[in-house]
Specification:
By secondary structure, the protein is an alpha+beta fold. The protein has helices at residues 2-34, 45-53, 59-62, 78-88, 109-117, 124-127, 141-151, 171-179, 210-216, 223-227, 234-242, and strands spanning 64-65, 72-73, 92-96, 103-108, 133-135, 155-159, 165-170, 194-196, 202-205, 251-254, 259-266, 271-277. The protein is built from 11 helices and 12 strands. Helix 4 (78-88) packs across helix 5.
Length: 287
């Protein structure tokens, strides 16, 4: 009977929470329509609405997908790591042993830099933390936020039911759901995502959304490719087209359009920048 009582209590609490949240949302919408900001500032309303929506957001919805993850190998030296971060400028990196599906730690830039300052030669594995938070793609973002807070971590690795790595979620990813995009001094402005070159060529950031690339450059994906793909970025689309992560200097050819993708920058996990060449005119349809 105690178990049944507990289940009933949990259901009642959940129903009460949903009822209260729904009531607050109704009040906010009513006040917003009347232009009444006596309870909350008008600038706070979108943020509060996003906070309520956070209960329906899952780790899969906010994660950086596997193809865009930036991870470093266990045996990477200080010198190679410093060269790596000079290009990427992230604060933390997952550390893998052999293959990306075998994440064994997280390395913080300051730990590697400290070892340099103290003139102590080491590998990434010597300064990384072996404590990694692995979560399911279906985990609620609110639960993940609480878990990261309790474990005092700012990054979680999303894994599927077979133990394969799907992507990663940072604390910033979760906060951006509530407050919107958080840009820092190293983020590339939107207008620099696509750099127009002479002739029928452009240079693009591989993280550019495929839909934005197709809108501003060329609708590259065929109907068949659209049906069989759920990839979000142009970089992920090129990796899928190549069947592997192409390295710097490699050219990936898209037969249906004749477009060629020259890899300008990449690492073992993903590509960074691409030169797109031989772009047809937009009025030339791609079926």
């Amino acid at each position: 009977m105690k178990l049944l009582d507990k289940i009933k209590t949990n259901r009642l609490v959940k129903q009460q929470e949903e009822s209260v949240i729904g009531l607050i949302e109704d009040i906010m919408e009513e006040r917003e329509e009347r232009g009444d900001s006596s309870i909350v500032d008008s600038r706070e309303i979108p943020m509060l609405k996003n906070l309520f929506r956070l209960r329906d957001v899952r780790a899969h919805d906010v994660m950086t997908p596997r193809v865009d993850m930036d991870a470093v190998p266990l045996e990477m030296t200080q010198a190679k790591f410093c060269k790596h971060i000079a290009e990427d400028k992230f604060t933390r990196y997952p550390v893998y042993d052999g293959v990306l599906d075998n994440i064994v730690g997280i390395v913080h830039v300051k730990d590697v830099l400290y070892s340099l300052i103290t003139k102590r030669k080491c590998l990434v594995k010597d300064v990384m933390t072996p404590h990694v938070l692995f979560v399911s793609p279906a985990m609620r973002a609110l639960d993940l936020l609480k878990e990261m807070q309790s474990k005092q971590v700012q990054m979680a690795i999303v894994v599927d039911e077979h133990g394969g790595v799907d992507g990663l979620v940072s604390l910033e990813d979760l906060l951006e759901v509530v407050v919107g995009e958080i840009d820092d001094e190293h983020d590339e402005p939107d207008e620099l995502q696509i750099k127009r070159l002479s002739g029928s060529s452009v240079e693009v950031n591989a993280k550019l959304h495929l839909s934005d690339f197709e809108r501003d450059v060329y609708p590259v994906a065929t109907q068949a490719e659209r049906k069989n793909s759920d990839i979000d970025t142009i970089g992920g689309w090129v990796v899928n087209l190549a069947g592997h992560v192409p390295q710097k200097g490699e050219v990936v050819h898209h037969q249906p359009t004749g477009i060629r993708f020259l890899i300008l920058s990449s690492d073992t996990c993903c590509i960074r920048r691409i030169k797109v060449m031989n772009i047809p005119k937009k009025d030339e349809k791609n079926d």
